[in-house]
Amino acid sequence: MQSFLNEWLWCEEYWLPPGISWKDMTETDDIHYPQPRHLFFSVIFGLVFIVLRHLFERYVAIPLSQHMGVKEKSRLRAFANPVLETFYRKRRIPDKAELFCLSRQCNIPCQKVERWFRRRRNQDRPGITKKFCEASWRFSFYFFAFFGGLSMLFNKPWFWDQRECWTGYPQQQILPSMYWYYMTELAFYWSLLFRVAFDVKRKDFTEQIIHHIVTIVLIGFSYCANYIRVGSLVLIVHDASDFFLESAKMFNYAGWKRTCNVLFVIFSSVFFITRLVIFPSKVIYTTYYFSMEIFKPFFGYYFFNALLMILQLLHAFWAYLILLMVYKFIFIGKLDKDERSDVEESDDSSEEEKGKEKQRKNGTNGVIHTGEVDCRAVTEENSYSHGKPDITNGHLKSS
Q: What is the DSSP string of 132-193?
């Protein structure tokens, strides 16, 4: 097993530039280089972060939410129905035929069945307090990570001149401060990945998963290949805008709309400057061009730049979502919601009234179309079938 790892995974051609071997990276008492075994500690630290997050949300975030006036919305709960609940566990949004079958099976109208599913979906959506706790935890980390990283990098030569990222590469010693900076950031993203199934799910859930995985691979690979200097620039650029976003969310959940709007404007400005200007023009440029002044391209060069380009594509996607919110902010005058957030469905009582009003104005007869299922049409459609439709274990069948 050890020989297989040495031959394939730790092949020198993958990690080191031409002419450099692992023997050149041997540590001494006074010289220390990044070692791949250090990455295992980041996984343990990631689990520690999960425990710290639980304690933070319980003893800091929840009391803070109460102090800031966070209030949960009142939701109408779906009445108990074992048949509908069994179907819901298999499928959250039934089609028209399934709604008709469920209404006959439960002996209740189709509109009531659809209303039940709407309320049941709302029950599963996270509450505002949970969203506030998640945003406050991320704000705390990004805030201290950015200013802590900035204090460590401010007096480093590669922070001001990106060519210094490659001076003496790859035989660049790792400083204790940079080691802990890397381990802390990597552990945090491990914790996000471990908890992704329990956190608030938004429209960009898939993109978030990709982002977490790419970030972990990027940090891990840059550590093993001793891209510490340029990797620290990637981290500081990303942390620069994130704590503004999370603070804007916190004030939005608390109902402080003006403060939220101001923070959102600041976040948008910092995001576009750091992610769409500084990141490609400084970070990607130095890895793509300046690095070739020191060594010839090798596998690590192409792999690292490919990961940076994936991050840049994600930046462009999120910039599009931000522009949608900026458009609403300019032309509507307020920020209704995060464009990534899942929208809570309203109860259908108001929709029925709108449908009745529309029917009176149009002078139409028959079934009201209010976004509900046209049960009469489904009934007529099923009247031609000889078998009685039924749903068993969440599947439609004819008996």
A: HHHHHHHHHHHHHHHHHHHHHHTT-HHHH-GGGGGTTTT--PPPHHHHHHHHHHHHHHHHHH
